[in-house]
Fold this sequence. Notes:
The complex is a heterotrimer of chains A (187), B (367) and C (178). Chain A has 187 residues and is of the alpha/beta class. Helices cover 34% and strands 25% of the residues of chain A. Chain A has 5 helices and 7 strands. A 5-stranded mixed β-sheet of chain A has the order 1-2-5-4-3, covered by helices on one side. In chain A, strands 6-7 form a two-stranded parallel sheet. Chain A starts with a helix and ends in a 5-residue tail after the last helix. Chain B has 367 residues and is α+β, with helices and mostly antiparallel strands. Chain B is 47% helix and 12% strand. Chain B has helices at residues 44-49, 56-59, 69-83, 89-118, 121-142, 164-187, 190-196, 204-210, 215-218, 226-229, 250-274, 332-342, 351-357, 362-366, and strands at 4-8, 20-26, 29-36, 151-152, 155-156, 297-304, 309-316, 324-328. In chain B, helix 4 runs antiparallel to helix 11. The radius of gyration of chain B is 21 Å and the shape is globular. Chain C has 7 helices and 5 strands; from the N terminus they run αβαββαβαβααα. Chain C is globular and about 50 Å long. In chain C, the strands form 2 sheets. Chain C has a 3-stranded parallel β-sheet with strand order 3-4-5. Chain C has helices at residues 6-15, 33-37, 68-80, 92-96, 127-143, 148-154, 156-167; strands at 19-22, 48-51, 59-63, 86-90, 118-120. The chains are: A alpha/beta (187), B alpha+beta (367), C alpha/beta (178). Chains in contact: A-B, A-C, B-C. The A-C interface holds A 131, 134-137, 139-140, 143, 148, 150-151, 153-154, 157-161 and C 68-69, 72, 95-97, 101-109, 112, 162, 165-169, 173, 177.
Amino acid sequence: MTNSMNNNVAEILEKAKKLFDVRVEDIAERQHKLIAENDKTIPLLAFLKESGYSHLSILTCIDWIEEKRFELVYILFNWSNGVTLLVSTFIDRDKPVFYTVKDMWPTAEYYERDVHEFFGVEFEGNERCRLPLFLELWNDLPPLRKDFDPLKFSKEHFPDREYEKDAIHEAKIIRADLEDTRGDING
Amino acid sequence: MGEVKLFFGPNHPGMHGNFSVHMYVEGDIVVKARPLPGFLHRGFEKLMERRLWYQNLALIPRICVPEPDINEACYAMAIEKIAKVEVPERAQWIRMIVLELARIANHLWSFGGIGGPTGMYTSMFWSVSDRDRVLDIFEELTGARIYHMYIIPGGVRKDFPPKLEEKILKLMDYLEQRMPEYETFILKNRILHTRLKGIAKIDTETCLKLGVTGIGLRATGVPYDIRKVDPYLFYDKVEFEIPTATEGDALARMSLKPKEIRQSIRIIRQALEKMPAGPVNTKISDGNGLRIRVPKGMAYARVESTRGEYGYLVVSNGEETPYRVAVRGASYPQGLYGVEHLLPGTRIDDVPIWLDTMGVCAPEIDR
Amino acid sequence: MDERSVWEKIADQLRSRSMWMLHYCTGCGAVELPPSMTSRFDMERLGMGPMATPRQADILLITGYLSVKTLRRVIYTYEKMADPKYVIGFGSCTINGGIYFDSYSTINRLDYYLPVDLYIAGCMPRPEAILNAFNTLMEMIRKGEANGWKRYKENYEWYKQNQLRSLGEVIVHDEFHE
């Protein structure tokens, strides 16, 4: 990328720091992470959208269970200079409510339904947020939360095949055979 | 005349993969449509948090079935961004060749896909057998036809076997002389041409508003391609063009595919020429070979797939397993929001053509 | 052991020569079906072809993992098919869950919900394996060994109970949420 464009990015980041009081981390060349306060995220997103970062790649969520909060990540892309901005904000894990951005990016409606389904985050202003999308008749914890154990769920609901033969034992026998004739199979 | 509720898919020969659209129709015009994804939901994002960084390599190709290599590339590139690892030059070129071969295979596959809804099965018989030639190359290179698990964090698994380069070049020659035949006999064939022309039109503004990328966007005349805008690997070191069309209909999108195959052939030839000798992988972290630890951090890596922008957000906590991986399927915007808002007004029999040429791929939406 | 009448034996001979496979891609294994249908491997020489509707199909091919959402549709589809009908489980994930053994949305064992006549192991099975499986199934039909559909009728209560246990409710809703 040319120099002027880099300046352009620096300018936007400077402005974002001043106006919205964000913390900026550089991830890679042409990729930066902006950490914003809860209430300033939506204006920040609107500002970035106006400044050319108009493509919403994905809206997703990360469950930081030890810090008791969810991180919402909006990934924005600028088609003219190829710069990616990750806008992130933290919300309370016990009362996960945020505001919708579906008026800015219509597709976000489905991303928000996705995040609601898998993390249980509510988006104010998105009426269809609570409707099931991928999962049908789901009545457990939202599955992508860290305290949900898929193995336990699977064991409870979906019976496993029971093998009459002890496959692991047999594998050990075969392996011992191989070690006799061909040496260590790892080697 | 009342409205009739109609379930299209998942069990329907015109539907690609396991996806469903529920519609209200009046006569044969769609009045209301709702996508119904989730038939292929396996909870990948959860499963990946439970596996080692390397174990995930076996899992991720299954997210996008017809074009699995982009998953490995995205995942590997995101990890390399977090760990700030330089990948050996030869590995980068090999990755490019693999990705472009996968692009060719998937474009040929989509020629097979269009055969069903239009009823022109010649297209399917031709392209699927041509795709098998690409799969043979993959088989020789990686040992598998479909899921390769070849691109790993830090490089690629193994170097090229002897004589593979000649075989690739020979295949490229074959495909290059085959492309005019596709253009004359398939795209200009009356069955396909009249069936696709003017169908499933979409304009630039809608595409940009929705975030539709890839061929859907380029068929409306916008030359946006991630390989040019945000170059990854060595796409900034090779010469290629971005074919565009202006009509924005199904025919325009289909006719871009042979052109893109030609560009891929061009890229592969340049890559084979410029590829230096040397190592093909490097270590991500010290310690036990397969139980790597990736330093704390978060990175997003994207590639241009045949359907558009395909990306992975990888979050690491410094542990042996990823903390969170989020997948951006390329057909998410058109497959969900697009189906709901752009399908009303079209005829029922154009719905599969819409889904097929916009590249709605169910497994990557469902994950 | 063989309880078939002479007529059934003759019918089975004929059935095995003309098999229609339901065109339903339930999982990623479906990606290997077009290559086996088209010119390179050419399934049609075995007298097999894809069929659009379950009413006219003989074989239900479960191509890979089944999420519970798909399984509801698959059970509907299977019950719609006319007798005799055969089920082929395709890929490791239908046998014991495969790499999805701990997934919260996919089942681990197909023969718990539907009677399976034949399994193809591997992920993914190659077209040669698919053709070999079809050959084996034909042989089984000729010998009268492929009677999963009879088992389903005899043990209907057991199958239903298992389906209800894992799926909660076997019903298909629409997406309009009205």
